Amino acid sequence: MTLVEESVEVGAPVPVVFGRWTRFEEFPLFVRGVLQVDRPEPDLTRWTVRAGGSTREFDARITELIPDERVAWASVAGDLRQAGVVTFHQLDDDRTRMMLQLYVEPHGLVDRVGDVLGFVHRRALDGLADFKAFVEAGAAAGPAAAP
To answer: Each residue of 23-82: pLDDT tens digit?
Structure first.
């Protein structure tokens, strides 16, 4: 299993950053490779992603959600096995540090090769950078309601 630990500083207050991050259905707007996210239940998300040259689907259950502090998840079905947590830390009134811990279990030869080449880590870094740009570009007009 691969562990990715990264952080990013976002130029927005914690409630805005947390609110945008927990609008999972919006991930296709800012994360490359995420094609669709549905929310069939309040604590269940269904993801369609492009990974390893193919389209894959998986379900993830939200295992912990503390507004403006943390959200954790674990995959429960599908082609990709992962678990993670993102925490939100106020740096000042207009800056938030997000810290990501992501555990990914490579599935099959293509995933294992991609993992060795650092693709999982690179995709996580790109996702955080894309989220930062999305929020800072003004996509978040204000705090969003927690899911």
So the answer is: 999 999 998 889 999 999 999 999 998 876 788 899 999 999 999 999 999 999 887 788
Q: Are 143 and 17 in contact (CB under 8 A)?
A: no
Q: Which two tokens stand for residue 138?
A: 């003004």
Residues 6+ apart with CB under 8 A from 34: 27, 28, 47, 48, 49
Dist. CA 45–CA 41, nearest whole Å: 7
The pTM score is: 0.84
Any idea of the CA torsion for 10, 13, 127, 5, to the nearest 10 degrees? 80
Pairing between strand 81-92 and 54-66? unpaired
* DSSP three-state, residue 128: helix
